[in-house]
Amino acid sequence: MTLRFAVLTISDRSSRGERPDASGPALIEVVQSQGWKVTRSAVLPDDLNVIRETLAAWADRGEADIILTAGGTGFAPRDVTPEATREVIEREAQGLAEAMRAASLSKSPHAMLSRAIAGIRGKALIINLPGSPKAAVENLNVVLPALEHAVQLLSEDPNAEAGH
């Protein structure tokens, strides 16, 4: 199954061109290494309304099965990615966020400061990842084994339950 991804980096500095986006390209590399497709990517500032509108539009267009966000999940006052995500999803997928935090905690005590969430809007799965390229890739690798099955279930694939 070829999954379709959209990758959204959320960073004030990268959106202003003050720092190159390293997280988005790192995530795109992982996705493509799995033989999956990236249908779109962008860099946005830490702005609740802009993030919310972009996530909703991308999910509603049906161009991506999975939308990955990188950044804006910490404690800084402008870290609003989880709030924007929560406003657009219809159902949370807590297990994904819990698995990422649990795996990250074995590498860094700062993992408990992550406020990342995951959830579903329509047939799209939205997953918040940390802003650092290393942490974003590590967290994506935690959930990779479950993503094909998640998309099968969301798309109501009749073969979704085969072998499970």
Kindly list the characteristics that best describe this protein.
164 residues; alpha/beta; Molybdenum Cofactor Biosythetic Enzyme, Chain A; six-stranded mixed β-sheet; 6 strands; 43% helix; globular
Can you describe this structure?
With 164 residues, the chain is an alpha/beta fold. It has six helices and six strands. β5 (118-121) and β6 form a beta hairpin. α2 (23-33) packs across α6 (133-154) and α3 (48-61) crosses α4 (81-88).
Name the CATH superfamily assignment. MoaB/Mog-like domain
Instruction: Kindly give the count of domains.
Output: 1
Q: Kindly report the CATH topology.
A: Molybdenum Cofactor Biosythetic Enzyme, Chain A
Spatial order of the strands forming the largest sheet: 2-1-3-6-5-4
- Which structural class is indicated by helix and strand composition? alpha/beta
Number of helices: 6
Question: How big a fraction of the residues is strand?
Answer: 15-25%
Q: What is the helix content? A: 40-55%
CATH class equals Alpha Beta
CATH architect. name: 3-Layer(aba) Sandwich
Biggest beta sheet attributes: 6 strands, mixed
The overall strand count is 6
